[in-house]
DNA sequence: GTCTATAGAGTGATAGAC
DNA sequence: GTCTATCACTCTATAGAC
């Protein structure tokens, strides 16, 4: 190897955190060099496509993380209330109880939505569909499962905003608890 | 008068729309001059504090709008289901069924949160407290009213994100309908 | 020497402030 | 319009593993 290069995984993690904190426009290359300790040369060698490629790489990394830590437990047969619980636990950890922003949510409200629209839509669609399938496997008819899944993802996003706006992680925690109760069937009684 | 000046209210409206669309960092003075038709000189005459003052002025304007169109109907005695409905109607119109972003929500997730934190927190706090008071006047105990109010504001924010991410206004509409059912007592039966 | 990842001065364009 | 600072990005030079 030509040089003692840094750990690419850690570089990506730092990059993701900077994008989360400052948004796409708010993140300057100078800020990235400072945060990662990498010079511009290294950065443009790693990401020839510049800032846009840095963002898409981060988004792909997030997608992979969600597949492993959020979707996989939901898809594990057989479905148990534990699957739901482990998803909500992972979500709570990932979003630091609402104090850490959802990059996909941030991008969805910015004008970069157009640039990354497919990735953003795919992220939310996959999450909703995986959760829908999981809920269908317990007891819910497709329509109800779908709406409940949408409501879950929606409330997590809303909880992040409100929790951050009021600087109160309790709001996020309360939302997660509430979702847990709603998603976990209190009794195996069909409609 | 030295010059035929433009309508300040319309200028402010345009300014708000640009900030919503591009965020704080994403909005350049050049973009503002283009959108408003005002030269840089006029802008810095109107807002000596520069971009930051433009944003604070917009935020104050939004606050006033909400007081008039959202809070006032909720505070009107006596409380009726119509108060809730008119709030939700105003919200739907204001956010263009989720296709128009909430500037306070956007700022809450950015690193400008620190700069405007008081205004942002005040916006959400006032909304929640007004709705709480309104719900208490029907039938709900304080604790329940407060949680329901929080849930309402939270779901509206989440609906904007999800609705925009999936480019589907129906999600926002469905959320509003759901909130209407939850906020409007189906029967005057106490706990 | 060859190669690759590094660092960082330098590029023009554009930012916000005045 | 004019200013300076900073932007994203380019490019040259080089350090070190083969």
Please characterize this protein's 3D structure.
With 191 residues, chain A is an all-alpha fold. The first copy, chain A, has a domain at 58-183: Tetracycline Repressor, domain 2. Chain A is built from 9 helices and no strands. In chain A, helix 8 (142-165) packs antiparallel against helix 9. The radius of gyration of chain A is 19 Å and the shape is elongated. In chain A, 37% of the residues are buried. The interface between A and B is large, with 41 and 41 residues. Chain A binds a DNA duplex (18 and 18 nucleotides) through residues 1-5, 28-30, 33, 38-42, 44-46, 50-51.
Question: Which key terms come to mind for this protein?
Answer:
YxaF_TetR_C (chains A, B); Tetracycline Repressor, domain 2; 191 residues; transcription (chains A, B); transcription regulation (chains A, B); elongated; DNA-binding; 75% helix; mainly alpha; Homeodomain-like_sf (chains A, B); homodimer
Quick description:
The structure is a homodimer of 191-residue chains. Chain A is mainly alpha-helical and 191 residues long.
SSE blueprint and pairings:
The structure is a homodimer of 191-residue chains.
Chain A: H1 8-26, H2 29-36, H3 40-46, H4 50-75, H5 81-94, H6 103-109, H7 113-136, H8 142-165, H9 169-183
The structure holds a DNA duplex (18 and 18 nucleotides).
CATH domain fold name of the domain at 58-183 in chain A: Tetracycline Repressor, domain 2
The topology string of helices and strands of chain A comes to: HHHHHHHHH
**Assembly state here?**
homodimer
Strand content of chain A: under 5%
Alpha-carbon Rg of chain A, integer: 19 Å
CATH architectural name of the domain at 58-183 in chain A: Orthogonal Bundle
Overall outline of chain A: elongated
- Tell me the number of strands of chain A: 0
CATH C-level label of the domain at 58-183 in chain A: Mainly Alpha
> Main β-sheet of chain A: number of strands, strand sense, barrel status?
none
Catalogue the unreliable spans of chain A: none
Helix content of chain A: over 70%
Question: Which chains share the greatest interface?
Answer: A-B, 41 and 41 residues
Mean of all residue-level pLDDT scores of chain A: 92
Derived structural class of chain A:
mainly alpha
- The count of helical stretches of chain A stands at 9
Distance between the termini of chain A: 63 Å
């Amino acid at each position: 190897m030509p040089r003692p290069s840094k750990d690419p995984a850690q570089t990506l993690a730092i990059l993701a955190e900077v994008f989360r904190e400052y948004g796409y426009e708010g993140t300057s290359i100078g800020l990235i060099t400072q945060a990662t300790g990498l010079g511009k040369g290294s950065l443009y060698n790693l990401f020839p496509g510049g800032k846009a490629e840095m963002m898409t790489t981060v988004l792909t990394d997030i997608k992979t993380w969600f597949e492993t830590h959020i979707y996989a437990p939901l898809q594990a047969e057989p479905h148990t209330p534990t699957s739901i619980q482990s998803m909500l636990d992972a979500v709570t950890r990932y979003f630091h109880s609402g104090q850490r922003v959802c990059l996909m949510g941030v991008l969805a409200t910015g004008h970069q939505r157009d640039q990354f629209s497919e990735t953003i839509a795919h992220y939310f669609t996959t999450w909703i569909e995986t959760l829908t399938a999981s809920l269908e496997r317990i007891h819910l008819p497709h329509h109800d499962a779908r709406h409940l899944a949408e409501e879950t993802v929606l409330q997590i996003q809303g909880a992040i905003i409100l929790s951050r706006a009021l600087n109160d992680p309790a709001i996020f925690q309360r939302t997660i608890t509430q979702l847990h109760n709603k998603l976990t069937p209190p009794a195996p009684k069909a409609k």
